[in-house]
């Protein structure tokens, strides 16, 4: 099933074979070029007055802005896409400059190709994690020993085995009943009688953070605790999404790191002696099977890895799935009628098309040529999953929601290779159950046309927001 997206202008009623039809530039093309778009609007207003002098000036401005903001210019930077809908620009970039493009503003190569992202993520001996030579501030924000996201080789594989004991698919039915459903029902109960809600703040942001608090055995109904954790996650995500740069981002990251350590330290110490069924107790009890004896610092590092991995990422993914559900009537109908196959496929398509984590960084360990681009040793590479997941060389009709893609999970939203997301089964569970709860409890849910319309806002971690709904 393929559909035309009225909100983004993407896609067409395209038969599966008509690949060219969905690769055309969409009406929202100029959304990626705000200055040019504004210039056109200005030109249009003034043309009617036939003021030749003004027209000349505006044409000059248009020429200048084209030189600096057009993605075909070597001076163009992805920084201009913050808060803008980026996908038409990725297509244009690919067409005009190729699959691997230098970005002077981001000071790194943008990798737009599905295959090249996969190649880099699968080969950790040739491409290292950005954090491998992280600046000292990273160790201030997260002191102690490294956890999975900062380990390599055999050590990394052993640590992953421990994480998988906490996050394996077999545990999901139990987590669904004990942690996910209570949290979702609690969130929906709070707005159910009101007839309206803002679903980013009242559902998407609530669920992952409270589910993790619940899994750690913390008082997940505590609103102050929940607000603090949510803010710390946002600050940390923004900080590493910009390669740990920027004074203000660093300051906020330090505060967030400090807050999380203070929250978890007493708990980690307590559970060392007094075990329960929560994540922290399980880490104490099971780490030795794969990792050997663990110290307090190890447990804190693992807890922080899990906590951070789950928060902002899943919040954005839930918001994006809900947005797509609300804005695609035929898809919505298919999902409501089949809350198994169609719903699962829909969740994967929402992750592929809108993602949540838009990119991950790596560095090259040696000179290499990638898709024609000459990469130097130690150059930074921005693996642009958001673009790779719509790569026309990999996907037919890449901009369309297609509930019949095979296999539905072959996108890169969770990474591929040895560092594929450890929490992906839990993330999928939370997204799925949020949609099911909305379908069951508010079948006539719709966007509120009298309120601010959703935009694909933010930068490295993105979602459509706000989601004002009525029911
Ligand atoms: C939709 C939600 C999520 C998305 C889009 C996502 C995405 C990702 C991505 C792209 C990576 C790879 C990072 C890299 O290689 O640089 C990753 C790793 C990781 N994720 Fe997730 N994640 C999500 C949810 C979760 C959840 C719910 C958890 C934990 C409960 C989690 C825990 C982790 C951990 C621990 C890693 C490190 C894996 C390793 O280095 O081996 N994630 N995730």
Describe the model.
By secondary structure, the chain is of the alpha+beta class. It has a single domain, classed as Cytochrome P450 (Cytochrome p450, Orthogonal Bundle). It is built from 17 helices and twelve strands. The chain has helices spanning 34-47, 52-69, 87-97, 114-122, 136-141, 153-167, 172-192, 199-204, 206-215, 223-241, 247-273, 279-290, 296-327, 329-337, 341-354, 385-388, 424-441; strands spanning 100-103, 108-111, 127-129, 196-198, 360-364, 368-370, 373-375, 380-383, 446-447, 455-458, 462-465, 468-470. The strands form four sheets. Strands 1-2-8-5-3 form a five-stranded mixed beta sheet, sandwiched between helices. It has a three-stranded antiparallel beta sheet with strand order 4-12-9. Strand 1 and strand 2 (108-111) form a beta hairpin. The longest helix has 32 residues, at 296-327. The chain is globular. The two termini are 27 Å apart. Mean pLDDT is 86; it is low at 4-9 and 11-54. The structure holds protoporphyrin IX containing FE.
What is the number of E strands?
12
Low-confidence stretches: 4-9, 11-54
| CATH H-level superfamily | Cytochrome P450
The coarse overall form would be globular
Known CATH architecture: Orthogonal Bundle
Give short descriptive properties of this protein.
single chain; 471 residues; alpha+beta; Cytochrome p450; 5-stranded mixed sheet; 3-stranded antiparallel sheet; 17 helices; 52% helix; binds protoporphyrin IX containing FE
């Amino acid at each position: 099933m393929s559909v035309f997206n009225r909100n983004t202008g993407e896609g067409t009623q395209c038969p599966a074979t008509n690949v060219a039809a969905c690769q055309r530039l969409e009406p929202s093309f100029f959304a990626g070029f705000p200055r040019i778009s504004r210039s056109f609007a200005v030109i249009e207003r003034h043309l009617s007055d036939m003021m030749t002098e003004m027209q000349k000036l505006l044409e000059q401005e248009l020429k200048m802005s084209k030189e600096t903001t057009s993605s075909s210019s070597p001076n163009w930077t992805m920084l201009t896409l913050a808060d803008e809908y980026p996908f038409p620009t990725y297509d244009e970039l690919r067409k005009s400059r190729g699959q691997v493009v230098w970005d002077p503003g981001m000071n790194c190569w943008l990798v737009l190709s599905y295959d090249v992202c996969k190649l880099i993520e699968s080969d950790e001996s040739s491409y290292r994690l950005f954090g491998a030579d992280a600046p000292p501030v990273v160790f201030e924000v997260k002191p102690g020993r490294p956890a999975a996201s900062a380990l390599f080789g055999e050590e990394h594989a052993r640590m992953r085995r421990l994480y998988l004991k906490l996050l394996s698919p077999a545990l999901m039915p139990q987590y669904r009943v004990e942690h996910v459903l209570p949290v979702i029902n609690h969130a929906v109960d709070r707005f159910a009688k009101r007839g309206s809600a803002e679903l980013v703040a009242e559902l998407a942001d609530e669920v992952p953070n409270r589910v993790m608090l619940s899994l750690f055995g913390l008082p997940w109904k505590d609103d102050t605790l929940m607000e603090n954790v949510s803010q710390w996650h946002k600050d940390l995500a923004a900080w590493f999404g910009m390669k740990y740069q920027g004074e203000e981002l660093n300051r906020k990251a330090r505060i967030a790191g400090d807050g999380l350590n203070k929250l978890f330290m007493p708990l980690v110490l307590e559970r060392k002696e007094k075990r329960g069924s929560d994540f922290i107790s399980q880490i104490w009890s099971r780490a030795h099977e794969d990792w050997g004896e663990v110290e307090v610092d190890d447990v804190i590092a693992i807890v922080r890895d899990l906590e951070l991995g789950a928060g902002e990422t899943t919040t954005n993914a839930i918001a994006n799935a809900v947005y797509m559900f609300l804005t695609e009537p035929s898809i919505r109908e298919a999902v409501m009628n089949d809350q198994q196959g169609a719903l699962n496929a829909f969740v994967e398509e929402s992750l592929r098309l809108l993602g949540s984590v838009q990119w991950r960084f790596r560095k090259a360990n040696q000179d290499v040529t990638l898709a024609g681009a000459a990469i130097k040793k130690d150059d930074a590479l921005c693996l642009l999953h958001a673009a790779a997941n719509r790569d026309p060389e990999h996907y037919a009709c890449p901009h369309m929601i297609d509930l019949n893609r095979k296999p539905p999970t072959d996108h890169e939203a969770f990474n591929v290779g040895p560092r594929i997301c450890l929490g992906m089964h839990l993330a999928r569970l939370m997204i799925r159950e949020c949609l099911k709860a909305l379908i069951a409890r508010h079948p006539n849910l719709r966007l509120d046309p009298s309120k601010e319309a959703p935009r694909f806002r933010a930068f490295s971690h993105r979602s459509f927001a706000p989601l004002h709904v009525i029911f």
